[in-house]
Design brief:
460 residues; mainly alpha
Length: 460
């Protein structure tokens, strides 16, 4: 026993081990039973359209919502094919990549604080509020866009530090920034976080820093304004799915519109930073699992707590690293990320929630929320308390994702049984037949999304 304890005391984890540790946590969070999950929600109609009606029809489907986002599907779908388990693995890898690039950004900004940067990245990786990760075909493409945004940030920060490859890094960063702005609205206003990061990178008087920041940010502002101009005056379907609820409220009654915005911001702050983590603890016993699944969930919970606790305690950091100093430096940037994340959400009058399907609007808040929470934990004086709290937060978040994943697996099984029963009882469904049901015993399917497998089966 003493030998084991002695060997544990000798273990030290460096920054290089973060890459593989994050991959391990990603696999435990999102990779269990990946082969038992399938297509959900809008994925089935999209898969049916692409593989049965052809790529051109899928392009037409996205033309009234996100035409450039639809182009990414044209690249990925012929490579991966109609194989749900491959999409599940792709989503896992991309989720890991986003967390890893977030870690690299924080390391560039605050190289003297590797420990809290790791905390923020791990919290971001397992963030329990976004419960739709397992809709893997769809969210793989969300993560592709998020990766483009984060890589654009990272490359621009590297460009500021580099003289030899500065032009190449900036050009790559411009292209990736354009991909984010053209394809999706979720991370649209986060582009302005770059202003504050550039300011952080420069030294000298405020005037000198302001001049350098303005000069290097100008190309990104030009890209932003150009794409915004296209969205406003040339993309005729900009408001096809969502209306600008906040702008309409301000026009009708400015005072009431301001109160609506304040209410939505306050609710979002509570839900995305605090309630989302409390919910993981509060709902741990509300599983409805059988004995075997419940046992597996508890084993996973305690295993992750022990793994994370061991890694955090043994993660080496500079002796003079002051976590409270990190909180003072990074807290404002966390608030900037968080506030800009809400721009595209509050504009359409939505407040993120923890239930499907509104929980997808938690996605843009993950960056700022994770960084803010890491800063709050850094304010705790006792290092042991910090580590225990982080291990508990991450462990319960992983168990929350496991519970969500179980519902996804159950839905996939139910949907398969439904259509197996139909093909056995109704082997030849006549064209034009309407199916009516007073209840669908699934969570992540709807009547219109089930039209995909229905057509796939009866009109192959």
């Amino acid at each position: 026993m003493k030998k084991i304890i002695g060997r544990l005391n000798e273990i030290k984890f460096t920054s290089r081990s973060v890459v593989w540790f994050m991959l391990l946590i990603a696999a435990l969070t999102y990779g269990l039973f990946f082969w038992q999950r399938g297509f959900y929600w809008d994925e089935y109609p999209w898969a049916w359209i692409y593989y049965r009606l052809g790529p051109d029809m899928l392009t037409k489907t996205f033309s009234t919502s996100r035409p450039f986002w639809g182009m990414i599907y044209q690249l990925t779908m012929p490579v991966i094919g109609p194989n749900p388990w491959i999409w599940q693995l792709l989503a896992l890898v991309l989720r890991w990549v986003t967390a890893l690039v977030f870690w690299l950004i924080l390391r560039v900004l605050w190289p003297e604080h590797p420990r809290p940067a790791l905390w923020a990245s791990l919290l971001f990786l397992v963030y329990p509020g976004m419960g739709q990760h397992f809709i893997s075909m769809m969210y793989s493409h969300f993560y592709i866009v998020l990766s483009c945004y984060l890589l654009s940030l990272y490359l621009s920060l590297l460009a500021l530090q580099s003289k030899k490859h500065r032009a190449i890094l900036f050009i790559a960063s411009y292209l990736l920034a354009a991909v984010n702005l053209l394809t999706m609205e979720y991370f649209y206003f986060l582009e302005f976080a770059r202003l504050f990061l550039f300011w952080k990178m420069f030294t000298g008087t405020n005037k000198v820093r302001a001049q350098k920041t303005a000069r290097y940010f100008a190309p990104y502002l030009f890209i932003f304004l150009g794409i915004t101009f296209w969205r406003m005056f040339f993309f005729t379907f900009q408001n096809a799915s969502y209306k600008y609820v906040l702008l309409d409220a301000l026009r009708n009654d400015f005072f009431s519109g301001v109160l609506l915005l304040i209410n939505n911001v306050a609710l979002s702050f509570w839900r995305t930073i605090f309630e989302v983590w409390i919910y993981s603890f509060a709902t741990i016993g509300l599983t409805g699992f059988g004995p075997l699944t419940l046992t597996l969930m508890l084993v996973l919970l305690f295993s992750v707590i022990l793994l994370v606790g061991l890694f955090l305690f043994k993660f080496s950091a500079p002796a003079d690293s002051n976590d409270r100093d990190f909180a003072r430096k990074a807290g404002f940037i966390g608030l900037v990320f968080w506030g800009l994340s809400g721009g595209s959400v509050w504009l359409i009058g939505i407040v993120p929630q923890l239930n499907f399907s509104i929980d997808r609007f938690m996605l843009p808040f993950m960056l700022g929320s994770s960084l803010i929470l890491a800063c709050l934990i850094a304010l705790i004086k006792n290092q042991r308390t910090q580590m225990i709290l982080l291990a508990l937060l991450i462990g319960f978040a992983v168990s929350r994702q496991f519970r969500v994943e179980e519902i996804f697996r159950s839905d996939w099984t139910t949907q398969q049984n439904l259509f197996w029963q139909m093909t056995w009882r109704i082997p030849a469904l006549e064209k034009g037949t309407i199916l009516i049901s007073n209840d669908l015993p699934v969570t992540y399917f709807s009547d219109n999304s089930l039209s995909g497998p229905l057509n796939w089966i009866y009109s192959p």
